[in-house]
Write a structure and sequence with these properties.
alpha/beta, Rossmann fold, two-stranded antiparallel sheet, 40% helix, elongated
Length: 383
C-alpha cells in the first residue's frame, strides 16, 4: 500500500503533562533534564534520524495510519525549526504568543511521505545544530522568560526546551524498530571485521567466565544472547558449560555455522527463547555480554522478564552494559555503520532487574582496558 494513500489520524492530545511526570511510553523524564543538557540531547537525537534514514525502506510505513521513519524525520526537522524560532522570540520579545502550527496539515501539504531521505537527513542535522546552538546562547538569567502558545499554554524558555526534548525523544522511540534494524545492518555488514577485531581475550573476561562456571554445575546449559563471532561461547565451553549460541545479526550466525557450530538467529525481545535441544527445560544461566546495550531503554525490562521466564530458579544472569546517561549512535571500533547504544546507571538498572524476576543483584563498575570507558558488570540470580 502506498504511504501517500494511507491516512494518519491527527494527534490532538495535550502533551504538556510530560513536564510534570515521566512519559509511560518512551520513558523520558523532562524534569530530570537540566538546561545545560538540552544541546547534548538534541544533537544525540539527531544521529538517530541520520542512521534510520539510511535504511532502504525508510519511506515505508510500518502499518496503515502510522508514519514512516522518513515522515517522522521530516516532522522532527520541522519541530527543531519551530522551537528555534520560539526560543528566539522569547529571548527577543516580552511574553510573545507563538503562531499556531498544525503539524498534521504540514505533513500533508509539504509531502513528507515523498521527500528525499538524503536531503531530509542533511536538513534535520542542520536544524538540530541550529537549535542546539540557540539553547547554548541562552543567558543564565533568561531561562525563566515566558512565552505562550496560541491556546494560552504558558512556557518558560527552560520548560519549552524540555517539552521540545520530549517531542523528539518520543519520536525516536516511535521508530525504535527501525533503529534496531539499522544497528543490526551495521553489524551484518562488518561481521567478519568485528569478529577479528575482538578476538583478543582479556584476563578479566576469563575471570568472569570462571566465576560463572563456579556458580553453576559442570555441563550446565547456558543461553548466550549476542554471541557475535563466538569468542565467549568457546570460553564458556572450555570451562565445561553447554552453550546455545544466538545472535540477532544473521552475519554472525553465518560465521559461527561456517565453523561447525549450531547457532540461531534470535531476537530476545520478540522470538521464542525456549531451548530447541531441551524443549520446556529452563536454562541454568544466561550470558549477555555487551549486547543488551543495543536494546531500547523501555524494552530492556521486557527482555529481562523474558530471560527470567526461561531460566530456572536460582539460575544466573551475567550481563554488561555501558555506564552513563541517554542514548547515542557511534561508529567506533570495528563496525563501519552507525550503532545505537543505550547507557544505564546502576540504580535504574538494579530496579529493572528486581522488577523483572531477578534477585541478588550485584553490580560492579569497571573501565575498559583500552579506552577507559565506564561499564557496568552485572550478576543476578533468578528469583
Amino acid at each position: 500500500m502506498s504511504a501517500v494513500s494511507e491516512t494518519v489520524v491527527p494527534d490532538t492530545k495535550d502533551w504538556t503533562w510530560v513536564l510534570d511526570r515521566p512519559c509511560p511510553e518512551c520513558g523520558f523524564e523532562a524534569s530530570a533534564v537540566t538546561v545545560d543538557r538540552l544541546p547534548e540531547v538534541v544533537r544525540d537525537n539527531a544521529t538517530t534520524w541520520e542512521a534510520v534514514l539510511t535504511l532502504r525502506d525508510a519511506a515505508e510505513r510500518p502499518a496503515p495510519g502510522t508514519w514512516s521513519p522518513l515522515e517522522y524525520a521530516c516532522h522532527v526537522r520541522d519541530v527543531h525549526r519551530i522551537f528555534d524560532r520560539r526560543v528566539r522570540m522569547m529571548l527577543e520579545e516580552d511574553e510573545p504568543r507563538f503562531p499556531n502550527w498544525d503539524q498534521d496539515e504540514t505533513a500533508v501539504t509539504d509531502g513528507y511521505a515523498v521527500q528525499d531521505p538524503v536531503t531530509v537527513s542533511a536538513e534535520l542535522l542542520d536544524a538540530a545544530e541550529a537549535v542546539a546552538e540557540r539553547y547554548e546562547s541562552v543567558p543564565p538569567d533568561a531561562w525563566d522568560r515566558r512565552g505562550f502558545r496560541s491556546n494560552g499554554d504558558e512556557f518558560t524558555v527552560a520548560s519549552l526546551g524540555r517539552y521540545h526534548l520530549h517531542d523528539i525523544v518520543h519520536h525516536g522511540w516511535d521508530v525504535r524498530a527501525a533503529s534496531r534494524r539499522a544497528t543490526v545492518e551495521a553489524y551484518d555488514a562488518s561481521a567478519a571485521a568485528y569478529r577479528a577485531g575482538v578476538a583478543h581475550v582479556p584476563d578479566s573476561l576469563r575471570e568472569t567466565v570462571a566465576a560463572l562456571a563456579a556458580a553453576i554445575s559442570p555441563g550446565a546449559r547456558v543461553l548466550e544472547i549476542g554471541s557475535g563471532g563466538g569468542r565467549d561461547a568457546r570460553l564458556l565451553e572450555e570451562a565445561g558449560l553447554s552453550v546455545r549460541r544466538t545472535d540477532v545479526t544473521p552475519g554472525f550466525v553465518d560465521l559461527m555455522r561456517a565453523e561447525g557450530y549450531d547457532a540461531d538467529v534470535l531476537d530476545p525481545l520478540t522470538d521464542d527463547l525456549d531451548d530447541p535441544d531441551r524443549p520446556g527445560t529452563p536454562y541454568d544461566a544466561v550470558w549477555a555480554s555487551a549486547c543488551l546495550l543495543h536494546v531500547d531503554r523501555g524494552d530492556l525490562p521486557v527482555v529481562l522478564r523474558r530471560l527470567a521466564g526461561v531460566t530456572r530458579p536460582g539460575g544466573v544472569l551475567r550481563l554488561s552494559l555501558k555506564e552513563g546517561d541517554g542514548e547515542r549512535w557511534s561508529t567506533h571500533g570495528h563496525v563501519g555503520g552507525a550503532r545505537r547504544f543505550t547507557y544505564w546507571r546502576e540504580e535504574p538498572l538494579r530496579s529493572a532487574l528486581l522488577a523483572s524476576g531477578w534477585g541478588f543483584v550485584e553490580v560492579v563498575h569497571f573501565d575498559t582496558e583500552l579506552s577507559g570507558e565506564p561499564w557496568l558488570d552485572v550478576t543476578a540470580r533468578r528469583a
